């Protein structure tokens, strides 16, 4: 059996201390195989963003392990973690996080440059072409629609061909048609390129595009649905929200 691409082992994360201590993750464990597309859902405050940040190495958990492609993140120092994030992990966030003074192509090239390499303008244009924006390479974020900016952010996350892409509400700010386009793109990265995608979403229609849905409630993994329809996912979400 091939080892999982992402493993979480008894992951716990607490913020604050004393009476103000909040347990955001309370012993979450799961394995995700390479080339799978997984949605993470749960009521507001259930720990989804915390889970994504810990799994992507942006935050250190209080205890437990994150293992990406056989590497235990806890064993890496800050430099090792930064390098792993640059080379193996791509992140897409709802707020796009594009640099406003850079063109689309320059934004896409940035992760490669930060890694001390160069991306040719042909490579940057090809990455933008993969998200249908080859003709927007010279445009700055302000000259692009929300959906186009999100696609630039995805092109930027893809350009290093990371083994793993974490996406936090990537369609949260997009209209229905653009959402569908972005979801198809993520689906294709998993199916055609074997990249492992983990996407936080509150939208059952978006989650139905994934292979499986992990449901978090109060920092714990309470449900896992494989190949479920949007209706089935919505019903499970409603139950989880009613329990809160
Ligand atoms: P979700 O993404 O599901 O809405 P979060 O992971 O953002 O949930 O939050 C989980 C819990 O942790 C919430 O109770 C939230 O208030 C708390 N929390 C998140 N980030 C912080 C922080 N930086 N400091 C203190 N509490 C936090």
Describe the 3D structure:
The protein contains eight helices and ten strands. It is of the alpha/beta class and 244 residues long. The protein has one domain: P-loop containing nucleotide triphosphate hydrolases (Rossmann fold, 3-Layer(aba) Sandwich). The strands form two sheets. A six-stranded mixed β-sheet has the order 6-7-8-3-9-10, sandwiched between helices. A four-stranded antiparallel β-sheet has the order 2-1-4-5, covered by helices on one side. Helix 6 links the parallel strand 7 and strand 8. Helix 3 runs parallel beside helix 5. It binds adenosine-5'-diphosphate (ADP). Adenosine-5'-diphosphate (ADP) binds next to strand 2 and helix 1. The site of adenosine-5'-diphosphate has 12 residues, from strand 2 and helix 1.
Q: Briefly, what is this?
A:
The protein is α/β, with parallel strands linked by helices.
Ligand catalogue: adenosine-5'-diphosphate
Task: Round the Cα radius of gyration to an integer and report it.
Answer: 18 Å
Shape: globular
* The CATH architecture: 3-Layer(aba) Sandwich
Please trace the helix and strand order, writing H or E for each element: EEEHEEHEHHHEHEHEEH
Main sheet specs: 6 strands, mixed
Structural class: alpha/beta
As a percent range, the share of helical residues equals: 25-40%
Strand content: 25-35%
CATH T-level topology: Rossmann fold
User: Gap between N and C termini, in Å?
Assistant: 38 Å
CATH class wording: Alpha Beta
């Amino acid at each position: 059996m091939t080892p999982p691409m992402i493993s979480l082992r008894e992951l716990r994360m607490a913020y604050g201390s004393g009476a103000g201590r909040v347990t955001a993750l309370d012993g979450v464990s799961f394995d995700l195989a390479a080339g799978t597309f997984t949605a993470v859902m749960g009521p507001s405050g259930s720990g989804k963003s915390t889970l994504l940040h810990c799994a992507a190495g942006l935050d250190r958990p209080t205890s437990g392990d994150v293992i990406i492609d056989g590497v235990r993140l806890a064993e890496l120092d800050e430099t090792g973690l930064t390098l792993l994030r640059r080379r193996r992990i791509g992140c897409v966030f709802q707020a796009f996080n594009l640099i406003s003074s850079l063109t689309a192509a320059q934004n896409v090239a940035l992760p490669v440059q930060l890694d001390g390499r160069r991306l040719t303008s042909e490579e940057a244009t090809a990455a933008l072409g993969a998200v249908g924006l080859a003709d927007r390479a010279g445009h700055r974020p302000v000259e692009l629609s929300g959906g186009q900016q999100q696609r630039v952010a995805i092109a930027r996350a893809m350009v290093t061909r990371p083994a793993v892409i974490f996406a936090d509400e990537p369609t949260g700010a997009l209209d229905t048609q653009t959402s569908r386009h972005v979801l198809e793109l993520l689906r294709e990265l998993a199916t055609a390129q074997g990249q492992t995608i983990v996407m936080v979403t509150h939208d059952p229609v978006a989650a139905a595009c994934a292979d499986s849905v992990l449901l978090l409630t109060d920092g714990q993994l309470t449900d896992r649905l494989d190949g479920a329809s949007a209706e089935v996912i919505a019903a499970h979400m409603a139950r989880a929200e009613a329990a809160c």
